[in-house]
Amino acid sequence: MHATSRLTKFAAALAGAALLGASLSAQARELSISTVLSDAFPWGQAAEKWAELVEERTEGRITMRVYPNAQLVAGDQTREFSAMRSGLIDAAVGSTINWLPQVPELNLFSLPFLLPDEAAVDAVTGGAAGDTIFAAIESRDVIPLAWGENGFRQLSNSRGPVTEPADLEGLKIRVVGSPLFQDTFTALGADPTQMSWTDAQPALTTGAVDGQENPLSVFDVARIDQVGQEHLTLWNYMNDPLIFAVNRQVWLSLDEADRETLREAALDAGQWEIAMTREQEAERLAAIQARGVNVAELTDDQYQAFVEATAEVHDKWAPRIGEALVEAAREAVEAR
Ligand code: X2X
Hints:
Elements: H1 2-27, E1 29-34, H2 42-57, E2 62-67, H3 80-86, E3 91-95, H4 96-99, H5 118-125, H6 128-138, E4 142-157, E5 172-175, H7 179-187, E6 191-194, H8 197-206, E7 211-215, H9 216-221, E8 231-247, H10 248-252, H11 256-290, E9 294-297, H12 300-309, H13 311-321, H14 323-334
Parallel strand pairs: 1-2, 1-3, 5-6, 5-7, 8-9
Antiparallel strand pairs: 3-8, 4-7, 4-8
Bound molecules: (2S)-2-hydroxy-2-methyl-3-oxobutanoic acid (X2X).
């Protein structure tokens, strides 16, 4: 009798503890955020900022843990979107270049010389074209929340100055993402080869490739000058926006208030990171030049020669991206 009642009390206490545990775990969440670059770069800092704001605004109830270097997809950055779509990754701050194999509309940003300056980028991401892109992502089970920016991608190589298409003749250039990049660099007479960022650095070091293209922040932080890339061309041939996003199931599992918190935090972190990336461009360029890199800026005529040499890439890719989307982007750029 005595023993039974003690047992009953013990069982009740156990059940109570389990209930408490269940309700706590229903509230406390840890979400993974994938990035390609670490917090040594603005890109990784964008993800850390998002995590920090969410943790602060949910008083620690939602923790977002950043996994840099595409480690959740074993370095294969072009699989990040699929992994997020299937739920292997909860969230990501990702580049349109890495997600475009699964979301063809994202090739828009890689159309060569479509977006000449920051105002053009903002007009596209902030307008009807940006809405279409977000809808395209959402139709693939991923909820996009905000834009960030890796930056304008500039060309570097170990061979010599590049100021006209003929200078690229035969240069082996590392590219990532999609066949669009193959087409652009082939149209310019270069020899493009596709590989991940993890593989790119050794390939530059050994001279397996002659050149690469990345924003100034990446060139600067990764010390690309130290792997023999002595020549840099500022040509703004494409901008590489980042997108903050969450897997749809994860999103649906959150209540309204938490969704709003995640969205607001992503918007704030994105704005903060875009402003920082742009502000730092001048000092990064100065640092790169101070290390002895030979920097070429294009005259209007030289720029125009690159535009003309890659016009065929627009003709080929506009139908694949969506004519209406490309047109909306062009209009936004014109009207900026
Ligand atoms: O791989 C690259 O070049 C990088 C780091 O810029 C991207 O992830 C698109």
